[in-house]
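debug: dumping io for the single-chain case to check the tokenizer round-trip. Nothing else runs in this session.
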Amino acid sequence: MSAAAAAAAAAATTAAYLARRAAQKQRVRILYRRALKDTLNWAVHRHLFYQDASDLRERFDANKNVEDLDTIDKMIAEGEASYNKWRHPDPYIVPWAPGGSKFTRNPTPPEGIEIIYDYGREDNA
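debug: decoded output
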């Protein structure tokens, strides 16, 4: 194998490694954010949430120095399975967000009715 071919193979291996690590970091970040947001559904009071959020952070920080890619993939899969198993069945939805209690609360006006929004402006003509 020539030196150029060896360098190209090493660069491809490095690029594949970096791409896989970037994908893993993204999956961990998404999992952490989802789990943290779901913690708010289970802990309705802030003082309870802060403790649960701290415990969740400790669980993620305990494994942040793992370097083996296959072990990391396995841990991410286990974390996602655990999250899906313990996800809140009735999550809180902000009232004005899609699915919330106030989302599109006012029906659209019937056809043929013109609504003019002038908000207190008067015509002095």
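debug: round-trip ok. The helical segments are 3-42, 46-61, 69-86.
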